[in-house]
Amino acid sequence: MSGLRMSRLRMTGDRWGDVATYLLLGVLGVFFALPFAWLLSLAVRTPAEVYLGAARFIPQAPTLDNFALILSDPAFLTYLWNGLKLSAAGATLAVLLAIPAAYAASRLDFKGKNAILVGILAVQMISPLVILVPLYRWMVALDLLNRDLSVIAVYGALGMPLAVWLLKVTFDAIPKDLEEAAAIDGASRLTTLLRITLPLARPGIASAFILAMVTNWSQFLIPFILLERDGDWPISVAIFNFAGSTSASTTQVLAAACIVAVLPAVAVFVALQRMIVSALVVGAVKG
Amino acid sequence: MTAASPARHSRGPAPADGHPLPWLVPAVAVLALFYAIPVLDVFRLAFSDASLLAPATRVTTDAVRGTLTDPALLSVLGTTAVFTGITVAALQLMGLAIALVIIRGEDRGLPGMAAFRTLVLAAWVVPGIANGLVWGMLFDEAPYGTLNSLLGSVGIGPVAWLSDPQMAMVSAMIANLWQGTAFSMIVFYAGRKGIDPVLYEVAELDAATPWQTFRYITLPLLRRLIAVNTILIAVQTLNTFDSILALTGGGPGRATEVLALFTFNTVFYNLDLAGGSVLALLLFGISMVLALVVLRGMGRERAAA
Amino acid sequence: MRAILLTTAAIAALPSLGAAQELIARNRVGLADAPNTLTFSLTAYDLYSSDPATKETFEGLFSDFIAARPDWKIETQLQTASIGQEQARLLQQSQAGRGPDCAMIDSSQLATFIDAGVLKPMNGVFSDDEVADLFPFVRDAVTDADGNVLAWWWFTDLRVLYRDTTVVPDAPQTWEEVQNAALAAVEQGREGILFNGGRWEGTAFDWMANFWAQGGELVDAEGRPVFAQGENREKFLSAIAYYQDLVDSGAAPARVTSITDYDAFNAAAAAGSAAMFVGGNWQYGQLRGTLDEATFANWQVSELPGPTADMRATGTGGWSIAALSDDPEKASLCGEMVKEIYAGAGNAAQGLLPTSAAIYDQFDTYDGPEYAQFSDALQNGVARPGATIYPEISNQIQILIGDVLSGAATPEEALETADAAVQAAYARQ
Questions:
Q1: Where does residue C12 rank: exposed (0-12), middle (13-18), buried (19+ CB within 10 A)?
Q2: Looking at the 3D structure of chain B, how many domains does it have?
C-alpha cells in the first residue's frame, strides 16, 4: 500500500519535475536563441532594410540573395577551407604534443612535476594580444611568415595546456593494472602507451582535439598577423571583409557570412558530441 | 595483443619510474620555440621605450612606472575584478544548471535535450563580430530596441542597458555569458555523467530530496572539477576583450574597460608597445596568482581527504 | 556540409568569365606573367566590395588601368575592417622591410605614417595645379615642409546636422536653436537630437567640431597637447556644456552614451523616432535607399550649428593612398593609380566627396542639392591634427564625454583627468 502510494507520489513529483525542466530550458532557450533570430533577421534583409536595425524584426522583403552571394563567392569556400585546415592541423599538433606530456604527468613520479605542469599552463596565460609584435618579428626571423606552419605551430603551443590537462585526467582514469600486465610481458613503456593506453583514451583524445579545434576556429589575431595574403586567411579573419564601408552597408552579407561560418563548427559538434561527452566521462571526477 | 604473447624479458618498466625527459621534450620544445621566446621578448619590451612606430632604443623603467602610476589603472583593475568575478561565477552556475537539467531530461527520456545542447554550443562558435552586432540590437535603447520593447509590453522598463555605467557592465556580462556558457556546460555535463549511478540509486532508496542529492553527492564529487574549471574560465575571462569592444568599446567613460581591453587600446590605439607589454605582464601575473591560489586550495583539500 | 555542397554547385554553375574579368583575380590585377609587380594593400570597400555594383565599376576601372600598362601586374592584399590592427600590422611590415609598395591609409593615421618615415614621395605624378586645387586641410596633411607629396587623400567626409522638416522646419544655426528645436520635438513625442556619445572615435571626432568652431586647438604648432590650457580650456568646457545641456534638459535622450555607430541614426530616422541627428554626409545616400520617397523628402541636411551663427566647423575624414616603396617607378605607379582610378571616377561611382574642387564640376553625381550643402560646409572643414598624441587625446575625450553625460563626473573634473592622462602619455613619447 504505502509503497504504491509512494511511487504514485513520485510519479507526480517527476511530472512536476519535467514541467520545471522544460520551463527552465524554455527560458534559457529563448536567451540562447534570441541573438540567432536577430542574426537571421539581418541575413535575409535587402540593403534598403538593413539600416532599420532593431526597428524591424521581420523584413518586409526577405531575400536569400546574401546567402547566394556568399556561397557563390569561391573565395568564401577558400576561407572556410583554410579555417578548417588550420584549426584541425593546430589541434592535431596540440594533441600529439600533449599525449606524451600528459602520460608522463599521469604515470611517472619525478621531481618538479607540478612546476612543469603549472609552467605549461602559465604559458597559455599570456594572451596572444601582446606577444603579437614579438611573434611577428620572430616568425620573420624563422622565415615562417605567411606559411601555414607558423599558425599551426602557435595553435599547437596554445592548445596544448588544456589538452595536457584533459589527457592527464583521462590517463589517470585508466587502470594501471593493464599497463603493468603488459610491462610484465616485457613491453616497453612506449609500446604500452601505443597499444593499450591510447586506444582506451580515444574519447579523451577526441575531446581534447575538438576543444582545441573550436578555440582555433575562432582565433583572429594570430592568423591575422602571421598570414598577410588574403588567399591564406581563415574565415575568422576574412569575415571582416564583409564589414561595411561608408558608401555601401554590407551588414546583411556579414550576418549571412557569420551564419554560414557557424555551420561547419556546429556540424562537427553534432557529429562528435557523443564522443566529447563519453570522453570526459571517463575520468572527469577521478581527475 | 601484448598481454597474450609469452614473456620475452623478465621485467618491463615499473609504473612510476623512468625518465620523464623524453616524454616532455616535444611539448616543452614547441612551447619554447613558438611561444615562450616571443613571451620573453615581452619582458624586454616592458623595460624599453619601444612603440609600434619605432623599435626600442634603450633600457628604461619609464613604461613600468608610467603604466603602474596611471590613475586610470586602478579603476580598470576594479572593473576587471567585478567583471571577472561575476562572469566566472555566472558561467559556472549557468553551465552547471544546464548540464544537470539536461541530464535529468535525458534520464527521463524527454525529447529536445540534444537540440538544446547544440544551441548552447552554437553560441560558442559564432564569430565575435556577430556577437557585438546582435547584442547591440538587443540592448538598443531606442524606443524600438528589442529587449526594451519586450519588457515594455509587460510594463517593465525601459532599461538603460548600455548608457548607464553600472548597467553597461551587466549587459557586457550577459553577452559574454551567452557566448561562454558552452565550455562549462560540456565540462560539467561530462563530470556529472561520470558519477557512479549507484550513488543516486542509493539516494533514491533513502528518499533523499533532489536538493540533498545535489548537496551531498553531486556537489562534493564535482568540487575538484569546479576548481580546475575556475582556473580555465578565469584565465579566459581575464583575457576577454573583443566582445566588450564590439558592444560598448569600454564605455560609457571607462565603465566597462577591463584590463585586457585597456591593454589592447594601449597597443593598438596608442601604439605604445612598452606600456602594453607592462600591462600584459600584469595580466599574466594576476592569472598566475589566481591559478596558484586555486591549485593550492585543491592540494590542501586532497591532503585533508 | 550542406553549405559546402551548395557552394560546389554554385561554382560549377558559374558562367565562363568574360575577357575583361580575366585581368582581375582575387589577389591580382593584370596578367599573371607580367614582368613587373606592384603590391597594393587595399580595403574591401571597392574592388573587392560585397556590393556588386561597386565591385563592377572598380573592376572596369582597374582593367582599363592595367590594360594600358601590359608590363605590370598589381598584387592586391586585402585589409580587414579592424583599422587599428591593420595600421599596427602595416607599420610592422614596413619596418621589417616587408610592407606593400602602395597602401590605403585612413586619413586620420596619415600623420603617424609620415612621422614613422615610411611614406615615399609621389611628386612627379601630381602637378602643382592639382596640388593647389586640393582643399587646404587636405593639402596640409599630404605634403611635407619641402613640398613632397607623401600621400593622396582621395575622398573626404564631413559631419552635418540632419533634421526631419515636419518637426524641425528651419535649420538651427546655433547651439541654442538646436536645444529649443529639440525640446519642441520632444513635446511631439520624438527624440530631440541624437549624436555619437559612446566610447569610440566617432564620438570625439563629431564633438570636436563644437570645439573647433570657437577656434579651439587640440595641439600647438609643435604637436604639444594644449586643449586644457588658456583660452582653449574655456572653449573646451563650453563645447562640453553644450552636449551636457542637451542631455540634462532632455533635448537628447540619455541613450546617446550608448551610440557607437552612425547606422543607429539611420535606424532612428527610419523608425521615425528621432527629429535630428549629427551624422556623416554619406548617410544621405543611405537614407535615400532606406526611407520611402515621401519620408525621405522630409529629411534635410544643414551645416553643424555653432555657438553663434557665424562660428562653424565640421570634422573631415576619409581615406588616402600612399607609396611605401623605395622604387620611384613603383611610387609613381601608385600615384597614377590614385589619379586614374580613385580620385575622380572612383569618387563619383560611390558618391564620395572629392578632395579637390575641380572634380565636383567634372561628374554629374555631384549635381544634387545636397552636394551644394556639403561643399559649403567643407569651407569650414577641419581635419584631425597630424600629431602622434592625437589617438590618446581622442581616447580621453571619449571617456570624458561618457563620464560627463552619464553623470559620473563634472566637466571640470573630467577635463583635469583627461589633461593629466594626455600630458603623461605625451611626456613618454
A1: exposed
A2: 1
Confidence of residue A286 (pLDDT cuts 50, 70, 90): very low
- Is B27 inside a domain boundary? no
Is B244 a residue whose pLDDT tops 80? yes
Q: What was the ipTM of the complex prediction? A: 0.85
B203-236 tens-digit pLDDT = 989 988 889 999 999 998 888 778 878 888 898 8
Q: Check if C45 contacts A (Cβ < 8 Å).
A: yes
CA distance C255 to chain B (A): 5
Which residues from chain C sit within 8 angstroms of residue B165, using beta carbons?
Answer: 406, 408
**CATH node for A65-283:** 1.10.3720.10
Question: What confidence category does residue A10 fall into, taking pLDDT thresholds of 50, 70 and 90?
Answer: low
Integer Cα distance of C282 and C285 in angstroms: 6
| pLDDT at residue C12, as a whole number | 39
Spatial separation of the C-alpha atoms in residues A132 and A127, rounded to whole Å: 9
Residue B278 lies in a domain: yes
Beta bridge partners of C153: C320
In a domain, B246, yes or no: yes
What is the rounded CA–CA span in Å between residue C332 and residue B304?
76
**A positions 12-71 inside 8 Å of B (CB):** 14, 17-18, 21-22, 24-25, 28-29, 31-36, 38-39, 42, 53-55, 57
Contact between B138 and A38 using a beta-carbon 8 Å cutoff: yes
Instruction: Please report the pLDDT score of residue C131 as a whole number.
Output: 94
Helix (H) or strand (E) holding C381: strand C381-383
Structural domain contains residue B6: no
Which structural domains are found in chain C, ordered by start? 20-150+316-378 (3.40.190.10), 158-313+386-428 (3.40.190.10)
Q: What is the pLDDT of residue C102?
A: 96
Please count the other Cβ atoms lying within 10 Å of the Cβ belonging to residue C18. 7
CATH code of the domain covering residue B168 = 1.10.3720.10
CA distance B16 to B21: 14
Domain boundaries of chain A, sorted by first residue: 2-43, 65-283
Contact between residue C27 and residue A97 where contact means Cβ atoms under 8 Å apart = no
CB distance from B27 to chain A under 8 Å? Answer: yes
Q: Select the residue from C2, C50, C287 to test the A interface by mutation, using most A Cβ atoms within 10 A.
A: C50
User: How much is the pLDDT for C19?
Assistant: 44
